[in-house]
């Protein structure tokens, strides 16, 4: 466990006194996703250095994190970020491997390429992160997606008409500036006044926005391909789910966000693996066309009007429920590390925790799930009495098919910090 969250200078001093037998992972940021990635890497004995712009995140107290500290936020000062990271790596005596957990950190590492840092992902991410490009690729491959218009190419009236009028969805071409302005990456507008206010605020934040139809989403049927796709000359991991999808080299599972908070367009709080080979094939066809290698989440929702799954987004990084894939036997961070550091056996990424290969898993994020149970009288609890007992006793940690975000009795620091924050009177926003 990191003994403290250091300043940049303090982290340099701490790293100068340490020694590493393999390249450590630089995990940024140090929130919910960061602690999940750290735990996945610690499972194959990779040392972890957690980076963030501040010490509020839940990752630093984890036993999976060896050191933690501040670096310049890449959105504020890319050159400062590059200099900070390079100065840290210079103290290691070895290279480091970058695992960015949000889009701004992806771009920070990809755009600045700090000296001594290997990337666990393809730095050419624009064809995936830019939704206009992504949907163009989906069109080429016959992958359904919502009707969408780019307001830099289409005037507002034409865009509104093209997506079927109100209600509609406004989302960014690139997430982070939009998220900083609105605290979310999707805004639903029900009339022209809401539309104009949102577009105006997005432009003031210098966030390019898309207008998208409000898909008739069937609640509880979302499906996302969680995968690691290796580079062309990298190792093969043998497929997605319990069996290979067209003998693909990728490793992964399809996860269903069975419960979200708030319900509908909220964040995932209960996710379980499902067999949806068509979703996996559609996602891989787009990823293959981009040539992207690395960890990604390809998000689909079930459109009850079209009666099929439609592609919403691809995140070229770890995300909140990545522990679901790890619990299922697809340790995506381990796969990315093994493909980046040649001395690590790629087989270490498959199975683990009592598993022989890739199977089923269920994941719950208790803060959001409990809030949903407490505030939504119509919600029917999806956890069994036995699962609640296993959560309270900690016995769930002996079950490779059931896991959580943050809360682990064997690694209590992150949950303890989350509780102190929740009841300490400080406002805390986690980008996950």
Overview of this protein structure:
The structure is a single chain. With 432 residues, the protein is an alpha/beta fold. The protein has 3 domains: 5-119, 3-Layer(aba) Sandwich (Rossmann fold), CATH 3.40.50; 147-213, ATP-grasp fold, A domain (Dna Ligase, domain 1), CATH 3.30.1490.20; 223-422, D-amino Acid Aminotransferase, Chain A, domain 1 (2-Layer Sandwich). It contains 15 helices and 18 strands. The strands form 3 sheets. Strands 11, 12, 13, 14, 15, 16, 17 and 18 form an 8-stranded mixed sheet that branches. β13 (251-261) and β14 (267-274) form a beta hairpin. α1 packs parallel to α3 (78-89) and α3 crosses α4. The model has no long low-confidence stretch (mean pLDDT 93).
List the helices and strands and how they pair.
Elements: E1 5-6, H1 8-16, E2 25-28, H2 32-42, E3 48-52, E4 67-70, H3 78-89, E5 96-100, H4 103-112, E6 117-119, H5 126-129, H6 131-140, E7 148-150, H7 156-162, E8 168-172, H8 175-182, E9 187-189, H9 192-204, E10 209-213, E11 223-229, E12 239-240, E13 251-261, E14 267-274, H10 277-290, E15 294-303, E16 308-315, H11 322-327, H12 332-340, E17 362-364, H13 366-375, H14 385-393, E18 402-404, H15 413-422
Parallel strand pairs: 1-4, 2-3, 2-5, 3-4, 5-6, 12-13, 17-18
Antiparallel strand pairs: 7-10, 8-9, 8-10, 11-13, 11-15, 13-14, 14-17, 15-16
Helix pairs in contact: 1-3, 3-4
- Shape, principal axes of CA atoms: globular
How much of the residues is beta strand, in percent?
15-25%
Low-confidence regions: none
CATH architecture grouping of the largest domain: 2-Layer Sandwich
Helix fraction bin: 25-40%
Rg over C-alpha atoms, rounded to the nearest angstrom = 21 Å
């Amino acid at each position: 466990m990191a003994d403290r969250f250091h300043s940049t200078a303090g982290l340099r001093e701490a790293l100068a006194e340490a020694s590493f037998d393999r390249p450590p992972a630089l995990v940024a940021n140090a929130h919910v996703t960061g602690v999940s990635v750290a735990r996945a890497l610690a499972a194959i004995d990779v040392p972890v250095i957690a980076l963030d712009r501040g010490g509020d995140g839940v990752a630093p107290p984890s036993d999976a994190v060896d050191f933690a500290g501040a670096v310049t936020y890449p959105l504020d000062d890319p050159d400062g970020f590059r200099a900070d990271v390079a100065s840290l790596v210079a103290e290691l005596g070895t290279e480091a491997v970058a695992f960015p957990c949000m889009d701004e950190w992806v771009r920070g590492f990809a755009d600045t390429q700090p000296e001594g840092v290997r990337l666990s992902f393809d730095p050419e991410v624009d064809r995936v992160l830019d939704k206009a490009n992504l949907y163009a690729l989906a069109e080429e491959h016959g992958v359904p997606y919502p009707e969408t218009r780019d307001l830099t190419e289409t005037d507002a009236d034409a865009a509104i008409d093209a997506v079927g009028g109100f209600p509609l969805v406004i989302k960014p071409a690139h997430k982070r500036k939009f998220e900083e302005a609105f605290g979310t990456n999707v805004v639903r507008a029900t009339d022209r006044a809401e539309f104009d206010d949102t577009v105006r605020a997005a432009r003031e934040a210098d966030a390019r926005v898309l207008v998208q139809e409000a898909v008739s989403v069937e609640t509880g049927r979302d499906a996302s391909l969680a995968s690691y796709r290796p580079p062309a000359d990298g190792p093969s991991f043998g497929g997605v789910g319990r069996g290979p999808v067209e003998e693909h080299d990728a490793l992964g599972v399809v996860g269903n966000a069975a419960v979200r908070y708030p319900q509908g367009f909220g964040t995932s709080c209960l996710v379980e693996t499902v067999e949806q080979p068509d979703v996996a094939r559609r996602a891989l066809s787009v990823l293959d066309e981009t040539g992207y290698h690395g960890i990604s989440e390809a998000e689909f929702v079930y459109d009850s009007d079209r009666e099929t799954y439609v592609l919403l987004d691809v995140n070229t990084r770890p995300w909140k429920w990545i522990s679901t894939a790890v619990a299922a036997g697809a340790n995506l961070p381990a796969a990315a590390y093994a493909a980046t550091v040649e001395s690590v056996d790629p087989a270490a990424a498959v199975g683990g925790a009592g598993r022989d290969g890739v199977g089923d898993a269920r994941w719950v994020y208790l803060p959001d799930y409990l809030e949903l149970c407490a505030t939504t009288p119509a919600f029917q609890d999806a956890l069994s009495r036995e699962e609640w007992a296993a959560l309270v006793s900690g016995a769930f940690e002996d079950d490779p098919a059931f896991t959580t975000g943050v809360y682990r009795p064997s690694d209590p620091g992150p949950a303890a910090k989350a509780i102190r924050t929740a009841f300490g009177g400080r406002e805390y926003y986690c980008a996950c």
